[in-house]
Specification:
Helices cover 41% and strands 16% of the residues. With 360 residues, the protein is of the alpha/beta class. The protein has two domains: 133 residues, translation initiation factor eif-2b, domain 1 (Four Helix Bundle (Hemerythrin (Met), subunit A)); 211 residues, Translation initiation factor eif-2b, domain 2 (Rossmann fold, 3-Layer(aba) Sandwich). A hairpin with a 2-residue loop joins strand 1 and strand 2. Helix 2 runs parallel beside helix 4 and helix 2 runs antiparallel to helix 5. It is globular, with a radius of gyration of 20 Å. The structure holds 5-S-methyl-1-O-phosphono-5-thio-D-ribulose.
Length: 360
């Protein structure tokens, strides 16, 4: 089984419960938190116990399965069971708005439920749980394939900048952007990583740096405002980031600050790649302007943990994501190959995705 070989098991199924690494306290402390139902999982997603688009999708799928398991012991009436399960799915859908993987996973679980709605309720709950396991295992397999496609773009000796954490912690294992680095290193290439700290939640400083140090992949931590300087000094050869949602024209939503990195990369002639499982492409949206951008609480900006550095009463903005226009994207690295937004090959691929999702 694929997951056992992974060093970081972001989400795991133990004794009838979902366990997730508490990413809010890494790397200072390492602990798992256990979840029993949709509401708990939704809160885990909202509060960033689990984060990263693919990991959020996997967690949500387990949330649906857990809710069904919880309900079979309490609700024998089929119509009331259905109404309560639907409510649980609704709560999960409200947890975070930007990562489309959340809605993709909920939709997949809902369709499976509808297909099996005539089954006895315990059998239905088992089917939903099996599907959640399948989504988790598929995610690791997809990341490995994506990693191999992406690794071909990197040459030995390259210094690659990444923003936020698109690693094993942001997925069920291996990672998307960090999966590309892992795969390149596994192919014997000498890759060194430059990790943007990623204000305000510090996913780069806390999570990417931790994953790379654990693995022995050379990593240098910088604050976000150092990226341009390093690029201008010729110290960055490529950028690889993850994404939370890609629109049909190739516009990319990712962690706040990504757009700035993409502009800098273009200014310095540095390739800017986005690692993106197909489930992160939102073919319903013609362009990135339609992507909902989560606005998080001001206290993430005015301080960190128990320390506050900004004066009380100051007005704060805290958009958690930004959109990089497709023209700044050198290539989308997916499990189906590398696509360059705006090209005929890319447009054909998007049309095929629309057909598969029955939009044409
Ligand atoms: O707010 P987060 O930590 O959930 O944001 C995560 C990111 O922006 C990642 O880059 C993205 O989800 C891709 S993860 C493979």
């Amino acid at each position: 089984m694929v997951l056992e070989k992974d060093r970081v098991e972001t989400l795991r199924w133990r004794k009838g419960r979902l366990e997730m690494i508490d990413q809010r306290i890494l790397p200072a402390r390492f602990r798992y938190l256990a979840y029993h139902g949709a509401r708990g999982v939704a809160e885990g997603i909202r509060s960033m116990v689990v984060r990263g688009a693919p990991a959020i999708g996997v967690a949500a799928a387990y949330g649906v399965a857990l809710e069904a398991i919880f309900l079979i012991r309490r609700e024998k009436n089929r119509a009331r069971f259905a109404a309560r399960l639907q409510k649980g799915i609704g709560v999960l859908a409200q947890s975070r708005p930007t990562a489309v993987n959340l809605f993709w996973a909920l939709d997949r679980m809902r369709r499976l439920w509808e297909k099996n709605s005539a089954r006895k309720l315990p059998a239905l709950a088992r089917i939903l749980l099996r599907e959640a396991h399948r989504i988790r295992e598929e995610d690791v397999r997809i990341n490995r394939v994506m990693g191999r496609h992406g690794a071909r773009l990197l040459k030995s000796g390259m210094r690659v900048l990444t923003h936020c954490n698109a690693g094993a912690l942001a997925t069920a294992g291996h990672g998307t952007a960090l999966g590309v680095f892992r795969s390149a290193v596994a192919q014997g290439k000498k890759i060194s990583v430059v990790a943007d700290e990623t204000r305000p939640f510090l996913q780069g400083a806390r999570l990417t740096a931790w994953e790379m140090v654990q693995e022995g992949i050379p990593v240098t931590l910088i604050t976000d405002n150092m990226a341009g300087h390093l690029m201008s000094c010729g110290e960055i050869d490529a950028v690889v980031v993850g994404t939370d949602r890609v629109a049909a024209n190739g516009d990319v939503a990712n962690k706040i600050g990504t757009y700035m990195v993409a502009v800098l990369a273009r200014r310095h002639g540095i390739p800017f790649y986005v690692a993106c499982p197909v489930s992160t492409v939102d073919v319903h949206l013609p362009h990135g302007r339609g992507i909902p951008i989560e606005e998080r609480k001001p206290d993430e900006v005015t301080g960190f943990a128990n320390i506050r550095w900004a004066p009380r009463g100051v007005r704060v903005r805290n958009p958690a994501f930004d959109v990089t226009p497709y023209r700044l994207v050198t290539g989308l690295i997916t499990e189906e190959g590398v696509f360059v937004p705006g090209t005929k090959k890319f447009l054909r691929w998007i049309d095929d995705l629309k057909k598969k999702r029955k939009l044409i």
